[in-house]
TrEMBL record, chains A, B:
Protein name per Swiss-Prot or TrEMBL: Magnesium transporter MgtE
Top-level taxon of origin: Bacteria
Keyword field contains Translocase: no
Assembly mode: Homodimer.
Protein species of origin: Aquamicrobium aerolatum DSM 21857
InterPro entries registered for this protein in UniProt: CBS_dom, CBS_dom_sf, Mg_transptr_MgtE_intracell_dom, MgtE_N_sf, MgtE_transporter, SLC41_membr_dom, SLC41_membr_dom_sf
Record's GO cellular component terms: plasma membrane
SMART domains recorded: CBS, MgtE_N
Residue ranges crossing the lipid bilayer per the database entry: 310-330, 336-354, 388-407, 413-437, 449-472
Record's keyword annotation contains Mitochondrion: no
Length: 475, 475
């Protein structure tokens, strides 16, 4: 009998000792150096047996981690040495650049052989980044039905449900009984590797409904399928954006959903594990865009990373010159009172910080659709309240500190007033800029930060230097 | 026969026309104003029948959206009017503040009645935020087994797998056959509402293994359970942090996982829908922390939101004074050349932007464990390369523009050199600050931004003003 704490399963006839998976990671979840050294040595010795024994037993994600930790030469050697024993699904777990590098070094015949054993969604994931010529050559070597299935998924645009779907599914006619359905599943050899739902279709493949597996198991054999199926309210059109599909999964707690073509014919199934990846990617995208970085990956080279970051820096540079020219308006005043030059970055910077707080909240709420016409007014009023309140608190604080630093209460008063104004403006900009961008169909995560900080810089410099110029009579 | 496009299901004996769910949202996924007005009118008229007809048929998440769109008085009236027809799982879909408000206004008897119908994870979600007195009173009114189950989950600390688990599960002994298991599921009335896995246990509830439902359906009736179960390598200790548990789900593409106590006895099951929520929360947390906001919710009041944002602004204010005092060192130089005051925010600001790009990439990579001892060195070198390259590009650019703006090539040269230095320092700070914080057990998302911008401000002001002072001979 198997036991939970029995980490070394009885390997039966062949006397190979499996590496227990939990042991390849240390307590921080990082691959152990000793394991990596062991695999590195096996690659150097071209010890195919050791690799098949210690790598083939790992989960695809563990092989993915291993590939990412190896050097590029070692990765390619590992895949080549393992041959048919290498699990290609591991390639869906690594950075794009690493996958491309490995696949580019493999003969098309080996790729064609490998993708036949994969679920169609994994096969598509690997094939979609290849150049058209290689892809066609690989597809040409596949059996007919396999080729048709992959082509169908590849024909849908990137980032749609059709691209992410698995084309293997279980479908039965409505007039079958539960008993017939169970017998069919016991006998058919071509079932998908795992599934949590079966679909009900008419002879033209039009989707009629779906049944969760637990429902089948609870129902007596004589009951008809059409009597226990539920309507598939959440069937996903193949052309639907993957992010939208992910939101349906999240909202309705789905494990899988039927994917249908424009005639409502069942063409595939979208599963929660792919959707989890999409959710992660989308959350990551917002974070990266707010931070001014695009679809960068850790494995990108210096040149690629540098190039991807230049546009944002360039836009910021232009905006920084705009803010600087506002300072230039008051050069005569600064020459008289250098303290203004010392204090002005505080006013502008605090505005930027407060604005980015409001903006972060707003961008996130837009992404999760938590902000809409019903609460937008209330949230704008709330942010104005926060801006007013925090403006007054920090105005008092900075007024006291700056006034005593330069032993000049008037200067303290001027910086206090401009700080209060700028924090209020920051709150307004922090909420209105992303809302406006969203309204006009632009991605608020990409452009909000530049607009908000430019507004707080310009308003900060202008109110502070302008007030001082007026008060001290330099006009 | 049901059809996909038949949105109005035949309601059978009772002649109630169901509101088709898809129709409550407009094309942007926002609740329709007409629907909201209709429900608002029904609440005002205390039209219980209309509410039961049009709200009770909605999915819990749709009722959640409805509650969030209603005014506080309307929400409480809706729950009160619907009584037992109100689906309490909808309360797990709304902001904490809204849930607390509704629950606080309900009699404990009604809550006790309602949570009995819920899955235990939903019941715990609603009970955990109540004050201890109310919670005890509600628990006291529950049947014995229900009470024990909920107590067990509530005894585990917040944000652990034990808190999030569902205590209803299907478990069978290893010597049963597939046929016996299916018969048991057909007859037992106390099965959980839905499940995707059954567990195998010994008489003391020790976990022996698990079987996915599709595996059961594919296997002949005579086969023994112990022959098809797989070892549950991924059983989750009840005390494990929910984020760690979510990472296991993600890595191994799990739909559900057994939760075990310290004696490896099965106490519950963690399901992917709860995990998806955890993944969302954790991604959101990083984004919010980088933006300087804590665990704020959209429904928080002005006072709550204001207070939660003050600490970050305060730390930034202190740091801004540090940067300002660096400018103060060079007041004599600024008085001679006011152009320096005009240009210095550009040098500091561009450093801040470049630093936050690197920092964003690093914080995200740390959160997803994509950065470790194997690639840290390579990534640090890459960021230094990017800093050097972009530093040179933007140094050239700003040198030319600033030099011609003030018709002073020497000033152009000085700003170019300080820009190159500051962008290189920004890259270093952007990667080393989060890595160091993480090394010492601090959350890099919380504190990185303040450190990085302080470093780029100080270095930007110091190199630019210092170089100018030295070059133009004011020392």
């Amino acid at each position: 009998m198997h036991q939970l704490d029995n980490k070394l399963p009885d390997s039966g006839a062949d006397d190979i000792l499996l590496v227990p998976a939990a042991d390849i990671y240390d307590d921080n979840g990082v691959l152990r150096g000793s394991f990596l050294a062991h695999i590195g040595a096996a690659i150097a010795d071209r010890d195919t047996l050791a690799l098949e024994r210690d790598v083939a037993s790992l989960h695809q994600s563990e092989i993915g981690h291993l590939l990412e930790a190896l050097l590029p030469d070692q990765r390619r050697a590992l895949v080549e040495l393992m041959g048919a024993a290498f699990d290609f699904t591991a390639l869906t777990e690594v950075d794009d650049a690493i996958r491309m590098d490995i696949v580019d070094h493999l003969p098309n015949e080996q790729i064609a052989q490998a993708v036949q054993d994969l679920d169609s969604d994994d096969a598509v994931y690997i094939l979609e980044d290849l150049d058209a010529e290689d892809r066609d050559e690989i597809l040409a070597q596949l059996p007919f039905t396999e080729r048709i299935r992959l082509r169908r998924a590849l024909d849908y645009p990137e980032e749609t449900a059709g691209r992410r779907m698995q084309t293997e599914f279980v479908a039965v006619p409505p007039f079958w009984t539960v008993g017939q359905t169970i017998d069919y599943m016991r006998e058919d050899q071509n079932l998908p590797e795992s599934f949590s739902q079966i679909f009900v279709i008419d002879p033209t493949f039009r989707l009629l409904g779906a049944i969760d597996l637990d429902r089948i198991l609870r129902t007596k054999r004589v009951v008809k399928i059409e009597d226990i199926m539920h309507e598939t309210r959440h069937a996903v059109p193949a052309t639907m954006d993957q992010e939208e599909a992910a939101q349906i999964f999240e909202q309705y707690d789905l494990l899988s959903a039927a994917v249908v073509d424009e005639n409502e014919r069942l063409v595939g199934v979208l599963t929660i594990d792919d959707v989890v990846d999409v959710i992660q990617e989308e959350a990551e995208e917002d974070l990266m865009r707010l931070g001014g970085v695009g679809d960068e990956e850790l494995s990108d080279s210096v040149l690629v990373a540098s190039r991807s970051r230049i546009p944002w820096l360039l836009v910021n540079l232009v905006m920084a010159f705009v803010a600087a020219s506002v300072i230039g308006l008051f050069d005569a005043t600064i020459q008289q009172i250098v303290a203004l030059a010392i204090l002005m970055p505080i006013v502008a910077g605090m505005g930027g910080n407060a604005g980015s707080q409001t903006m972060t909240v707003t961008v996130r709420a837009l992404a999760t659709k938590d902000i809409d016409i019903y609460n937008a007014g209330r949230i704008i009023r709330r942010e104005m309240g926060v801006g007013l309140l925090n403006g007054m608190i920090f105005a008092t604080l900075i007024g006291l500190v700056a006034g005593s630093w330069f032993a000049d209460p008037e200067l303290g008063g001027i910086i206090a007033v401009s700080m209060a104004i700028n924090l209020f403006v920051a709150a307004l900009a922090g909420i209105l800029v992303p809302l406006t961008l969203d309204r006009f169909g632009a991605d608020p995560a990409v452009a909000s930060a530049v607009f908000v900080t430019t507004i707080t810089d310009v308003v900060g410099f202008f109110t502070f230097l302008g007030l001082a110029t007026w008060w001290f009579g330099f006009l």
